[in-house]
Predict the 3D structure of the following.
Amino acid sequence: MVDEPGKKLLILLVDDVPENIHVLAAALKADYRIKIAVNGPAALDLAQRSDRPELILLDVMMPGMNGIEVMRELRSRPATKDIPVIFVSADSSEQSQVAGLDLGADDYLTKPVVVPVLMARVRNILQRKCAEAQLRLAAHVFDHSGEAIMITDRNNRILQVNPAFIRLTGYAASEVRGKSPSILASGKTTPDEYRAMWHSINETGFWQGEIWDRHKDGCVYPKLLTISVVRSVSGSVDYYIASFADISAQKATEEKIRHIAHHDPLTDLPNRLYLQISLKQTMLLVRRKEEEAAVMFIDLDRFKVINDSLGHQVGDGLLIEVAHRLKESVRDSDLVVRLGGDEFVIVLTDKNAAHASAHVADKILTALSKPYLVNGINLRTTPSIGISLYPHDGETIELLMKNADTAMYHAKAVGRNNYQFFRAEMKHLTNDRLLLEHSLHEALEKGQFYLHYQPQVKSENDHVIGLEVLLRWEHPVLGNVPPDQFIPVAEEIGLIGRLGEWVLNTACSQLRDWRSQGFKDVRIAVNLSVQQLRQAHLVERVASVLRANELAGGDLELEITESAAMLNPEVAIEIFNALRNIGVELAIDDFGTGYSSLSYLKLLPIQRLKLDRTFVKDIETDPNDAAICSATIALAHALGIEVVAEGVETEAQRDYLLHREADIMQGFLFAKPMPAEAVPVFLNSPRAV
Ligand SMILES: Nc1nc2c(ncn2[C@@H]2O[C@H](COP(=O)(O)O[C@H]3[C@@H](O)[C@H](n4cnc5c(=O)[nH]c(N)nc54)O[C@@H]3COP(=O)(O)O)[C@@H](O)[C@H]2O)c(=O)[nH]1
């Protein structure tokens, strides 16, 4: 029975004498609702209805079923057994009062009733029942609460704990009773935090917050704890009531959300947002410790080419492995971030950040240049690294990042696969790169490209058997931009496909012209980029250009660099075979600078290997280069392939290569690349015959 505010309690009056009923009702009706029964069966019926009485005033002597029998019935029925009953009887003997109370009556009144006594007894019983009901409710809440509850005395010794406490902490009630709650402490919540907690409890009588406790099994867990003080009427502390819940799951969810917000989903490295937050803290810390910080901007060389030609899955796999190698190259305390795409940033601190970052950059260059195996495909990539130092190169995050980025562009511009520290004079470089990209986009439409042709001669007689087609770009402001500079950019911005097609069309149409002038025996050698190799319908396009210019397949040689062919050798073999089927000749360019698998090399249906000019250059002075040249020629011949030696500049080089039986030679010794109109003159010259 719990008091419902605003609703009067119901009392059932049971008496067979109307005058008695009248007296009782008159006394009670102002404060209570009244129901009346004039016999035992009617009383039992009313007592178990849904609108159950909170108290029954029961006459003992009634005809038929007397009060004692009614009482017995009430106590035997579950619905009525707890309803308080006051016997009202004319029998004032002690014996009869005891008998009534023994039966379970709550009180005994004798007739004639004295109204104030009646009122006081009724009030007392109802108040007691109400308090009992509230205690029962509180006990139920205590026992069944999902939150752990712990009651401690004024000395903060545990008095009572509920079942949820036992479940949550792992301790039985008997193990904690009489002990301090510090038995639950983990050591993770600091003394300062506890001091603040007690300050609030003592000052306000209340505290709520998160602390870390230790389960009996040793596990440390976070809990949300509420402590309130119970004071006596005089104001002194009687009890502390602590309730708490394990918030591990909530904390884990919060942590997961924080992690997602601060990390890159592909590599699980911290992201740009995290970098911003962390770099700010690093700068403060470095200042305090009088140290320095280095921001290293890392970009993978030609990543776009790999991604576009081998697909995003392979690109993603490569980025995951790069992230792993970067982590391996630095200390745990250093920060490795993926900004997006193929851009990574490392932040490290040191007394001498320049020295430390140079050391790390060397490690990264070595680690990232090692071969990768992604989805069964062997890959290679290299990084270009730009480094800015704090506070020397900038006092803000934006400036440090910008300067590291500029230094990275410089590293690309000076040949990739290296690192550069930021220098003020590099600033113009970023603008140059943007200008280059922008200019490249419109160069084709504006007719700024043209071709040069470099003769290839038969070693034994210097007869010109081919002309390598070399792309040139004359920009009105930038002047002559070397292909080494603009071709990688054209690849990165996705322009190389269109550009390559223009080269093929122009060169084939030029050969047709020369053919019509009577030059029947030279073929042209056109460079093909890795992205063109993956172009849809490449073979059909080549066939169609040849047809359009009335050329045979053998009039055209396609040169593919060793690294492009080995990027995905299976695909290269398939495309090469298709090109061979239309009669096109095939050469592997820059041989020796990439990483060839011999098992794949022998499967490629190629006619020529072009020995890179870096080996030819020092052929007379460097025994290693000489050995590579000899070995390459021997290998090619063993596979039935001809060798074109590139970059032959001196008679001595020529003699050496002739002696080693290089089949074809190309280089400034014979002719520099020349414009189309110079070619007929050269072909007609006595040397070229
Ligand atoms: N995908 C395409 N790549 C192309 C195309 N046109 C050129 N290229 C590639 O650009 C790289 C640089 O070429 P380039 O500056 O034209 O240099 C060529 C020759 O001028 C140079 N060479 C030739 N003989 C000598 C020599 O005796 N000494 C010397 N120092 N340099 C010499 O070599 C370059 C030709 O090299 P290769 O192609 O490896 O035979 C270069 O990688 C070109 O391939 C194009 O249309 N598409």
